Each structure stands twice: as C-alpha cells, then as structure tokens.
C-alpha cells in the first residue's frame, strides 16, 4: 500500500508580492510559488496533476491544484511548472474564461498541451448547497460540456466553489454529470487508490511561510490537528450563517486583520 499523499490548493499567482487584504490572503507571488516547487523537488516528491496522484502514476508525489482559472495561472504558474518538468490541475469557472484577469480558452489549450490537467469549477462559481437542483445540473453538466468542447477532452474532475458541497439529497448529480473526482477544501492527506466513485479529495491550502509549507508536504500530524480544529470552528460558524453570509463575514474579517497588521 502506497503512503498517503498531499494535494495542494492554490488560488492566484502574482508577478509580485500580494497586496494586504482578503484578496492577497489567497494569493502567492511567482517567486514564492517557484520556491515551493523547489521544496517539493528537494523533498524527493513529484509535482503532478490530481488524476496522476490518484492513479499513483507519479511515484512519490504531491498533487498541485489551482482554483478559479485566473490569467496568473497561465502567465506565472505554468512557466515555473514547465521549467521543472512538473504538472498541475487547474479548475476553471467557464463563465469567467476570457474575462479581464482570467485565462482565455487559447491559454487553457496551451496549458493542456503542456501536460496540465483542466478541470471544472462550475459555470458561475455559486455555493452549491444554495442552488436548486435544476440550476445545479446546469452548473455541473454545463461547465463540463463547455470545457470538453473547447479543449477536446473528457473532463472528470470538479473543485467545489468555496469548498461548499451540494446537499446530500442531490449529490448523486455529481456523478450523473460525469465527475469521478471531487476536490474539496477539507484539510488532510489522501489514501492511494480509488475506494469510491466519485473520489472526494482533501486539499491543503498553501501557506506562504517556508517552514509551514515543508510541514504540509510532510503531512505533519500536529499541523493537521490544528487545521482541522480551525475547520470545525469555522464550519460551525458557516452552518449558522449559511455559505454566502459566511463568505462575506470572512472577507470582512480578513480585511480587518490586514488593516491591523499595517
């Protein structure tokens, strides 16, 4: 049995250092990202796509994923990955493709040609627990069909917007829409193999400090306990407020914290 493996979750990659505030909280600089890739290699791991990690096709591996499909993924993340012979999975919101600040279909085709995996992040990035079944079907199936048509592929992976899963009663729509891999925002490592379909993947949000990043790669149990405790507290708040109100509250909290640091 292979050892558990880690899946990293990035959002924006910027040319320079992120600005203070909630937006910057979810971004890393190109230099920081390059440093992370070098640490992956120094640890004897292979940076790979999500499906490669699940299938065990990359040996000792760490999956690298990105949410939202921003232009920075094509301009800054892709060159650093390609320079080191690594790959990653990029989850795109199809309704945002080609908008200012987001990758174009041409860029996504080039990324796929360079060995990257392109997955779905739905059509409009809603909280899936808040949308009716018919709309959920359009978000799931529609985004997959748009990616397949534009890139000439068979899309199997979906990342949950905001880490928000559909209500249990309608979760069968995920498999019905053609997805066999569901990327969550839950912290932790993943077991090898495909014990169920769809496979639900835990992902570790990437911190900037080098020491913390090395602990993430090692699957440090102490760090995992702290992160899961934090998840439980925030999950309780999310349950009381609902996903949309929680997202607004969290952004205000992060912005206030950034102002205090300044």
Beta strand %: 15-25%
Largest sheet: 6 strands, parallel
Order of helices and strands: EEHEHEHEHEHEHEHEEEHHH
CATH superfamily: Glycoside hydrolase/deacetylase
Q: How many domains is the backbone divided into? A: 1
- Percent range of helical residues: 40-55%
CATH architecture: Alpha-Beta Barrel
Q: Low-confidence spans: pLDDT under 50, at least 5 residues?
A: none
> Radius of gyration over alpha carbons?
17 Å
Number of strands: 11
Which secondary-structure class do the elements indicate?
alpha/beta
The CATH topology name reads TIM Barrel
Amino- and carboxy-terminal Cα gap: 48 Å
Categorize the overall geometry.
globular
Mean pLDDT: 89
Report the CATH C-level class: Alpha Beta
Total helical segments: 10
Can you describe what's shown?
- Helix content is 45%, strand content 16%.
- Helix 2 (30-42) packs parallel to helix 4, helix 2 (30-42) crosses helix 8 and helix 9 packs across helix 10 (243-261).
- The chain has a single domain (6-220), classed as Glycoside hydrolase/deacetylase (TIM Barrel), CATH 3.20.20.370.
- The longest helix has 21 residues, at 221-241.
- It has ten helices and eleven strands.
- It is an alpha/beta fold and 262 residues long.
- The protein has helices spanning 22-25, 30-42, 50-55, 71-83, 105-113, 133-151, 172-176, 210-217, 221-241, 243-261; strands at 6-10, 12-14, 27-29, 46-48, 61-68, 89-92, 117-120, 157-159, 181-183, 199-201, 204-205.
């Amino acid at each position: 049995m292979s050892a558990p493996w880690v899946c990293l979750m990035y959002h924006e990659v910027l040319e320079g250092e992120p600005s203070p505030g909630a937006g910057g909280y979810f971004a890393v600089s190109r230099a920081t990202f390059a440093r992370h890739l070098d640490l992956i290699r120094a640890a004897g791991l292979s940076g790979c796509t999500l499906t490669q990690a699940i299938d065990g096709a990359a040996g000792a591996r760490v999956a690298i994923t990105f949410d939202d499909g921003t232009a920075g993924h094509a301009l800054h993340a892709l060159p650093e990955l390609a320079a080191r012979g690594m790959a990653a999975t990029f989850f795109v919101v199809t309704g945002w493709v080609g908008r200012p600040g987001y990758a174009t279909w041409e860029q996504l085709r080039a990324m796929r040609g360079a060995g990257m995996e392109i997955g779905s992040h739905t059509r409009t990035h809603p909280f899936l627990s808040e949308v009716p079944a018919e709309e959920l079907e359009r978000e799931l199936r529609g985004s997959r069909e748009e990616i397949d048509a534009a890139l000439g592929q068979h899309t199997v992976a979906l990342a949950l917007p905001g880490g928000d899963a559909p209500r249990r009663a309608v979760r069968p729509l995920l498999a019905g829409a053609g997805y066999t891999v569901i990327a969550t925002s839950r912290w932790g490592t993943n077991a090898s193999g495909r014990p169920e379909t769809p496979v639900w993947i835990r992902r570790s949000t990437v911190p900037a400090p080098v020491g913390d990043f090395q602990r993430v790669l090692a699957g440090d149990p102490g760090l995992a306990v702290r992160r899961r405790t934090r998840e439980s507290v925030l999950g309780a708040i999310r349950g009381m407020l609902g996903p949309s109100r929680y997202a607004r509250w969290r952004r205000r909290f992060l912005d206030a914290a950034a102002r205090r640091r300044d």
